Amino acid sequence: MARPIRVEYEGAVYHVTARGNERRAVFRDDADRYRLLNTLAECTERFGLVVHAYCLMSNHYHLIVETPRANLSAALGWLQTTYTIRFNRRHDRSGHLFQGRYKAIVVEADAYARELVRYVHANPVRPANKRAPVPTERHGKLAAYPWSSHRAYAGLVSAAPWLSLDWLAYWGRRRGEAQRAYRRSMAEMFGRPAASPFDAVRGGLALGSERLWTKASQHLEAHAGQEEIRWRRRVGKTAARGLIQRLAEKEPDCRVRIWLRVRLGGERPVDLARTLGYADGSGVLRVVQRLDALAQRDAAMRSRLAELRQGGGVSIVDSAEELRWPRRAESPPRGGFPAALRGTPGRRLRRSAGRRALTL
């Protein structure tokens, strides 16, 4: 399994989350939750990790951590491995507990600390439908929930020795004043949909200003492994596809819109078919091929497609070789079809060829 992208530097702040394998529970009872928190306490001592906030749910956890030693991978790897061993030993099981590696997003604290803490602490009361308002009757559940740092922030309980409450300063200069302001800000979440700060994440990697994004990108350039290279390609494709979609929105000819998204945007015909109402990807692909053929005969269309290629920048999928659609699938081979394909030969052979082409 691919390792996580590593953007590590001294003093970096992260939002970290990990889910149970197949979304199964990683905590079966309170003893397991205490075990994770005790393991986290050991992790802070062993790796110098600073924990600013946390929340344990049944099948996943959230952490907001800071790494003075630039060692997130080592710290989180140890945390999850050690907890898995202890969990397996207690429940007489073996194998993976978490769904792959943890996910970490580097965060600009000054810009997003308040939003991030509120988001993490609201997990126990947020509805499954993220667009639905947080029910007001769940206010009491939040105040009573013992498996997050919310109650320590609110001044309802003493903080664990390993939990840092330094971020209360984002709500006020004095501890009591900050706790009252924090409680008010949490109360404001009820009765309305809870906004997610992760809507502003860039490249699935960084939450913050242009300065943070530049720092993260430069770090990847300096520490480029295969996973970092794949990440840069993915981000580049996402940006290019956004440009292609904006070009397509301005295009009145539906055939050209499809051509743009497939030839220049690199979208798979089978995926486009679902959104455009085609039975399968072969219908989308035929539209693209026919437009290519028309451009060979018609100078105006050839000029139009060339203009779009320039406006779309560097093409992601810019050649028929990428699609590899069998040219002769529309007609029987010389000598007729094999016996196994007789009956409805044209349709059956086209479907077979289409499956081969679209899974390459």
Notes on the structure:
This protein has 360 residues and is of the alpha+beta class. 49% of the residues lie in helices and 8% in strands. The protein has 13 helices and five strands. The protein has helices at 30-47, 72-91, 109-121, 139-144, 150-154, 175-187, 210-222, 226-249, 254-264, 269-276, 281-297, 299-311, 345-358; strands at residues 12-19, 50-56, 60-67, 103-107, 206-207. A five-stranded mixed sheet has the order 2-3-1-4-5, sandwiched between helices. Strand 2 (50-56) and strand 3 form a beta hairpin. Helix 1 (30-47) packs antiparallel against helix 2 (72-91), helix 9 (254-264) packs across helix 11 and helix 10 crosses helix 11. Residues 225-232 and 313-360 have low confidence and may be disordered.
Record the SSE blueprint.
Blueprint: E1 12-19, H1 30-47, E2 50-56, E3 60-67, H2 72-91, E4 103-107, H3 109-121, H4 139-144, H5 150-154, H6 175-187, E5 206-207, H7 210-222, H8 226-249, H9 254-264, H10 269-276, H11 281-297, H12 299-311, H13 345-358
Parallel strand pairs: 4-5
Antiparallel strand pairs: 1-3, 1-4, 2-3
Helix pairs in contact: 1-2, 8-9, 9-11, 10-11, 11-12
